Amino acid sequence: MLARRLALLALALVVASAVIFAVVDLVPGDPAVFVLGTGARPDTLAALRQQLGLDLPWPTRYARWLGGVLTGDLGTSLAYKAPVAGMILDRVQVSLPLALMALGLAVAVALPVGMLAASRRGRPADALAMGAAQVGIALPNFWFAMLLVLVFAVKLRWLPAGGFPGWSDPLAALRALVLPAVALALPQAAILARVLRSALIETLGQDYIRSARAKGLSRAQVLRRHALRNALIPVLTILGMQFSFLLAGAIIIENVFYLPGLGRLIFQAISQRDLVVVQSAVLVLVAAVILVTFLVDLAYAAVDPRLRGR
Amino acid sequence: MIPGRHRMGLVAGAALGAIALAMALVSLVWTPFDVTGVDVANRLLPPGGAHPLGTDHLGRDLLSMVMIGARTSLSVALLAVGIGAAVGVPLGLAAAASRGGWLDEAIMRAGDLVFAFPALVTAILITAALGPSAANAMLAIGIFNIPVFARVTRAGALPLWTLDYIRAAEISGKGPARISAEHILPNVASLLIVQGTIQFALGILAEAGLSYVGLGAQPPTPSWGRMLADAQTMVTLAPHVAVVPGLAIVLTVLGLNLLGDGLRDALDPRLKARLT
Prior knowledge:
- The structure holds two protein chains of two kinds.
- Helices cover 78% and strands 0% of the residues of chain A.
- Chain A is mainly alpha-helical.
- In chain A, helix 5 packs across helix 8 (170-204).
- Chain A starts with a helix and ends in a 7-residue tail after the last helix.
- Chain B is mainly α.
- Chain B has one domain (63-275): MetI-like (MetI-like fold, Orthogonal Bundle), CATH 1.10.3720.10.
- Chain B starts with a helix and ends with a helix.
- The relative contact order of chain B is 0.17.
- The chains are: A mainly alpha, B mainly alpha.
- At the A-B interface, helix 1, helix 6, helix 7, helix 8 and helix 10 of A face helix 3, helix 4, helix 7, helix 8 and helix 9 of B.
């Protein structure tokens, strides 16, 4: 079964890379003209095109790119004259910790809120938590980010309003990621809390929960030991999907906070027609989503023994 | 359950949605001020007086801007739902009709692939190829909506195919396409209305995000996301220029989500556990 899954994973990655290559290939504008300017002589342009491999037919160019991806050689950025792989690696050091921090925060908030709401179902605490969740889902994260900057950076001066100092000073780096991570996490926490609540309520209605209560476990013990574990499947599904939203959301949040992450790299590269960078950076994002989905599928089996071997 | 809570949500949601829709429609014929001109003397006025929501950095009336912005946001999100439903529902019906077959597998795997491209990444790629515009933002959000509708339709349709009356229709010689249209579709319609409302709300958020980073509606068309982008540099001087369009988004999305939840409970109480 694992072999079939791995084959599907490889197929998904190849198809995704082909889609990205095809779309980027459609982008109008000649990179050679962009580098040399509109006044360049036709023979200089032709020479550069040949040097960049732009004169080759598309199957050859696609095969070259894919081969490069597999060997870690993503080519050279036209705008920065630097290896693309190194540039992406630098940016991942901002984007990945940001996404993980946001995911961790979302779980840390959603878990107690969802459990509280489920155990106090129909009472004021539940109504309050779910009302707050409704508002959290409706908040655009970049707007929430602006309000956070206004309060915590401009008025209170507790945290930086933007920019990234680099990991040489880990504390300063973490401080720079706090507000972006909170902005990203809030809507995700709201969604997660709602899913957890309804999953818990559904499991709490099962017979074995009544048996556990009958054998003398307290409500809190039943919730933690039996219900939570069984409610994890829908929560895992949502977490996997949320990773994709976090990566996408990070593209906007990186712009609010001027963070040098993958998203900003893609934006800058597109405006500079630096397509070598665009296709590889987008592939990294998409491959990350595909890999996480794959891992979530594997995690189901770990959480629920009944799904093993399926 | 607190009695009537969902009915309350339904009413509040419908009211908020109706206000947004009314603003968009009224803006077609009337706005309190003309927003095409610049009125520097009245820039960054706080809410109150002649400008109930204040003015922006160019002296434009924020209420008028929000009204016209509603038009952009609602139309982009609504048409994106249209694209998603028009392509996704037939695909979901076909997948369910061939339940377990290669077509089902192919449609669902293709959907997984689209899900791997976050809407914003799709929008960036489309924008790179075709240029930024409200239409391309709509296309990007719409593409993301397709697998959502396909999955919901399939999930709703699959259990129906095992029912006796569908069997009877099959035996009487009706083809899968006809059964899907005549018997399956009407029975998944309530699911689709609920999902459509939720995707509408998500579409408004997505459109705001895209416009905010410059991939949606282009100047001079006002949109809520672009208003927020303009407000970013002014937010310390005049917070209301950021608060007003932000609240417009939050209230509209909140309203549509409440409406979706309320409709779900009203149309089919059994769905409550299945969809969260």
